[in-house]
UniProtKB/TrEMBL annotation:
Similarity comment: Belongs to the ATPase A chain family.
Gene field: atpB
Protein name (database record): ATP synthase subunit a
Gene Ontology molecular-function annotations: proton-transporting ATP synthase activity, rotational mechanism
Membrane topology: Multi-pass membrane protein
Locations listed in the record: Cell membrane; Membrane
Stored Pfam families: ATP-synt_A (PF00119)
CDD domains, per the entry: ATP-synt_Fo_a_6
Recorded superkingdom: Bacteria
Taxonomic path: Bacteria, Pseudomonadati, Bacteroidota, Bacteroidia, Bacteroidales
Signal peptide range in chain numbering: 1-32
Cross-referenced InterPro entries: ATP_synth_F0_asu, ATP_synth_F0_asu_bact/mt, F0_ATP_A_sf
SUPFAM superfamilies, per database record: F1F0 ATP synthase subunit A (SSF81336)
A GO cellular component entry from the record: proton-transporting ATP synthase complex
Length: 359
């Protein structure tokens, strides 16, 4: 009886949080679409890109026509006045603070700019804590907490089989370690094991947090090409800095007919170009999949408001279709979040393994 009651309580908790997140996933885009827009005048492009791109404030919701958001610190260095730091709330609604403002259009649209002594709009050195930067800090904090909590449990319970969350972490770690890292790299996997495990959980946590539309979720971290470029760059360094002589021999003098290498180095050029295309493919694959998922969810939600002026029948039908497809896409995004973390780690392990193969 006690076990049944305990299981029922656990099921109720999971059901509550699932329902809460589901409603949040649906209501957040709806809130954004209705905020400040008249019926029939929904700017879909602005709604979608305002959620995908980085920002100097962390928008939460709208309440009685007022924006509820968390202002983030802006840290900039002007060529003429030096360093300056203030909260982004000073720049709301096109306000100018200490000669700084957010550009509405042009080359620096959405970025903090200033007017120099010649009246030209220039971009200062910007080291601000934007939404994506804060999202990265949150995800790194969560990752450290999970890893240290798991390690602490093993320290306190030696020679014991873990259960619950620790058991789940052990299962995930062992699956990636044995099935991806060791299989992909081979005998010399140990120097790269920690890196690949860190990459997997880092991408996974950022993907999962990005699905949650309410704070501290909603930051489009892995949908930012700068973040995926750094991750791909780390794999590029891991592949090429620790590659064997045989790997570089196959790049500059591959096992191909001589006429493909002399007088024109066709095959060496193709092999060398492959060094750059591998990390580029990693960068684009992760960026495109995560960004596309967010874009589709927001676009589907906007269908409700686009059809608002087409009559009750059409709008009612499209509302049902929009909600159903939004729920489906959120569930699909959950799968994509795990799958993209796995694929990035798997391909990184395979690229490293190819560079470590000895003849």
């Amino acid at each position: 009886m006690r076990k049944e009651k305990k299981m029922n309580r656990i099921k109720s908790k999971y059901l509550f949080w699932f329902t809460f997140l589901l409603l949040a996933c649906i209501s957040a885009p709806i809130n954004a679409a209705t905020a400040g827009e008249e019926p029939g005048k929904v700017d879909v492009q602005d709604i979608v890109f305002s959620h995908i791109r980085d920002a100097y404030t962390w928008h939460i919701t709208e309440w009685n026509g007022k924006e509820i958001s968390i202002p983030l610190p802006v840290l900039v260095k002007s060529e003429e006045r030096g360093w300056d730091m203030f909260l982004s709330s000073h720049l709301h609604h096109g306000n100018v603070h200490h000669n700084y403002y957010v550009a509405g259009e042009g080359e620096h649209a959405g970025k903090v700019v200033e007017k120099n002594s010649r009246g030209e709009e220039v971009k200062p050195l910007d080291l601000s804590l934007t939404k994506n930067v804060v999202g990265l800090l949150i995800s790194c904090g969560i990752l450290l907490f999970i890893v240290l909590r798991t390690a602490r449990w093993y320290k306190k319970h030696p020679n014991e089989a873990p259960g619950g969350f620790t058991g789940l972490m052990e299962m995930a770690v062992m699956y990636i370690h044995e099935g991806v890292v060791k299989e992909g790299i081979g005998k010399e996997y140990k120097p790269f094991s920690s890196y690949l495990l860190t990459v997997f959980f880092f991408i996974l946590i950022n993907n999962l947090i990005g699905i949650i539309p309410v704070f501290p979720g909603g930051a489009n971290v892995t949908g930012n090409i700068a973040v995926t470029a750094v991750l791909a760059g780390c794999t590029f360094l891991a592949v090429n800095l620790f590659a064997t002589k045989e790997y570089w021999k196959e790049i500059f003098w591959p096992n191909a007919p001589l006429f493909l290498k002399l007088p024109l180095p066709i095959m060496p050029f193709v092999e060398f170009f492959g060094i750059l295309t591998k990390p580029f493919a990693l960068m684009i694959r992760l960026f495109a999949n995560i960004m596309a998922g967010h874009t589709i969810i927001l676009a589907l939600t906007c269908l409700i408001f686009i059809t608002a002026s087409m009559g009750v029948a059409i709008n009612g039908t499209m509302t049902v279709v929009s909600v159903l497809f939004t729920v489906f896409m959120n569930c699909l995004e959950l799968l994509v979040a795990c799958l993209q973390a796995y694929i990035f780690t798997l391909l990184s392990a395979n690229y490293i393994g190819l560079a470590k193969v000895r003849e």
